[in-house]
């Protein structure tokens, strides 16, 4: 495994040296005058490798703009979702904040917290991205955010464990194939899958992806309009039925509903389960969180598509995130300028080279190095519709309900019909 955090690639080291040299020259010329403007960026907690990447981008930007100081701040995933609304209402609001787009962004825009970037993104900025990426941050034909990268949810697989149980990962194409694999793994003494049920959203990946497979992205959009029974329609009930039948096979680790996402990620990295349904972003974090810091060896690691479901309308759709940044209403023009710099073609290509994520900027996919990143890019390119996480796409309040019913279904606390009805009710009263 490459120890990215200890030894940066030569181009990046050179880039850092140049940035440091420019910063020193600038400091001498201005007698280390204090920055006139501070730009605060709020981001969900990430890997050390990605933090280093942002540090290098900031160093280069500050060298070119000595009157501006850029500060990145990080909050753990679940806490970010609950704290962001409060921060946006306070005098401690960030200038730039990480966003999943969708109805959550709409709530923030309607509350008056977000700056309209429609004009700023003209003149070549918007043209860097596919239309689908910009659409995730477009409301009523106005653009309120800039895309950073797309994510895809799939099964990370430890092939050393699956082969031990006689399971061929590449042969898992249907939901029935997955169920058979779970039975074979359990019978061989291997924990089939790990999940961070405590945080809600990892379990929602099961219900949300099943709903996407069954209804399709277009069917989910139709449900938002109240068509075909809305979220009480057959695909959403069936998603609950399939999830509960799956849980009856005992696929997860002991105490899965009291396990956090971070702990589940570490457990997979430590080889404690064969499968982990998670986003492609977990490649480096899972390694870093493992006891050894090395995680599952690359030669034993695979990333496979979520299986097809018989009769589903969305078997060719993908499920994941379209992640980016939004700018708060009263932020300075320097904040917009930094965001434009952060997301320029060179920096997007550098992120792809480092294997941090799969950028959406045109041409950056050419730099993807790992087979996992290339697999994600392939899934996205072949997808008919990229459905954004339902706990984000449906807005904060409805998303919380989606996460809750996913855990309740897994514990047998509610029926599939009750789960679908709760989502529909939340949507109606959002």
User: Rounded to an integer, what's the Rg over CA atoms?
Assistant: 22 Å
Count of alpha/pi helices? 17
Taken from the alpha-carbon principal axes, the silhouette is: globular
Average residue-wise pLDDT = 90
Helix content: 40-55%
Distance between the termini: 46 Å
Low-confidence runs (pLDDT<50, min 5 residues)? 1-33
Q: Summarize the main sheet.
A: 9 strands, mixed
Portion in strands: 5-15%
Q: What's the helix-strand series?
A: HEHEHEHHEEEHHHHHEHEEHHEHEHHH
Structural class: alpha/beta
Work out the number of β strands. Answer: 11
Pfam families: SBP_bac_1 (PF01547)
Protein name: Extracellular solute-binding protein
Signal peptide: 1-34
Family: Belongs to the bacterial solute-binding protein 1 family.
Keywords for this structure?
9-stranded mixed β-sheet, Extracellular solute-binding protein, disordered N terminus, transport, single chain, alpha/beta, 11 strands, signal, 17 helices, 47% helix, 430 residues, SBP
How would the blueprint of this fold be written?
Blueprint lengths: L9 H21 L6 E8 L3 H17 L3 E8 L1 H12 L7 E4 L2 H9 L20 H5 L2 E2 L2 E2 L2 E13 H6 L10 H13 L13 H24 L9 H14 L13 H9 L5 E5 L3 H7 L11 E4 L13 E10 L5 H10 L2 H10 L3 E2 L11 H12 L3 E3 L1 H4 L2 H16 L4 H13 L2
Parallel strand pairs: 1-2, 1-3, 9-11
Antiparallel strand pairs: 3-9, 4-5, 6-7, 6-8, 6-9, 6-10
Helix pairs in contact: 1-2, 2-13, 8-9, 8-16, 9-16, 9-17, 10-11, 16-17
InterPro entries: SBP
Keywords: Signal, Transport
Family: Belongs to the bacterial solute-binding protein 1 family.
